# Entry
Amino acid sequence: MLRSAAGPYRPLREDAPVSVKAKPLVLLVEDTVPLAQLYLEYLKREPLQARRAETLAEAKEALVALRPAAVLLDLELPDGNGLDLVEAARKAGLDPAFIVITAHGSVNAAVEAMRAGAHDFLVKPFTAERLVTTMRNALEGRRLKRIVETLGSGVGDTAFEGFIGADLSMQAVYRVIDLAAKSRSTVFITGESGTGKEVCAEAIHRRRPRRDGAFVALNCGAVPKELMESEIFGHVKGAFTGAASDRDGAALRADGGTLFLDEVCEMDPALQVKLLRFIQTGSIQAVGSDRTRKVDVRIVCATNRDPLAEVEAGRFREDLYYRLHVIPLQLPPLRERGSDVLLLARHFLTAFSAEEGRGFKGFAPEAEARLCASPWPGNVRQLQNVIRRIVVVHDGAQVTEAMLPSELEAERAVEPASPARPAPQAVPAESAVIVPLAQVERETIERAIELCGGNMTEAAIRLGINVSTIYRKRQSWAGRAAE
# Structure
């Protein structure tokens, strides 16, 4: 039997239309009654409807009957694994925003759920604020996604506010930019280096209504942490050595416009607290001043890291993450954009040929094949640099395969490191030694980090330990080396 937060419910027909004015429906799948009551109480003041299922079987029934907008899902159910519900939704063509609930010892299962399509996860115990914020973000992300799907992405745009691309992944990006620009909510752009995160931020700014205001970009990874507070909030004369006069910060210069914080995960933890206060109050205080000032700023931020992994590792504040991560926007890497590689290459070739006075008109078929086969780890920025180099060094009617730099061939041949554990090497009896356990532990951890490409969160998951353990041990090793 399916349960309501208050009284029985009447299931919707599968073909029943869903009113756009109806409150979104959330399905809570939790078999422990006290916890279920607590979570429902947390969500009580939110503009949504709540229904509860105790078992996996009930949840599967509710999934089809209710078509919820979001599912708050405990992974450990009496009749099965909650992950089966994610798979059931996919097979039924349903796309609710799944938020999985897990215990401290089951983070691996939460990561598996994220890979299966879950929106986010919560580790018990969690606060009402954390649940509400996560639910709001999940529902907002799903709403934007549905609008994009309703509008359709096959509009054929190849140029959009500085972007060049016709692939469906980019069409979806254009739609989200257009919708996000009309909102005051913070946008969090993620994507690999070179995918165009600053271009994306400027596109959001140029779409109404803030296009007449200033667009101020600040790279949080390029400014020394001692100067970062002054760069954002400004300073008064004499605030520190070298402060010869008053100086407005980026937040004040962006008043009425957009402040773009690139590589925001690089920000010093102490400054993260002040940024959070600024977002909450809309007030700034210059370094060395006792006066606060209100500003009207739209914040767009970006990172090429996994922000959730940074939160888990303790390098980025969780409360700040949830303040910034309101409208997520993921930029696809160039290798996943299909024929956009050639669209961009031709665009750059035309532009750079005009600049350099060259006669290039296009690419030979073999050259196009090579361009499409490259993985482009540096994404659009790398492609741009490659085409410029070709135009500067060569000339002709067509770019031939011989003109392409050798690095493309090398990149194509590189295989990603396998995360599998290497086979143990046989040790001759005469050379066998007993290695101290601490040394074995250190070598195992460092080897895991190397195999995971430096991603310590993934290494921790594969080792079956908490990522904080890795950071603590590495600090200990560094301390011993310094002695």
Remarks:
- Residues 1-21, 150-156, 410-432 have pLDDT under 50 and may be disordered.
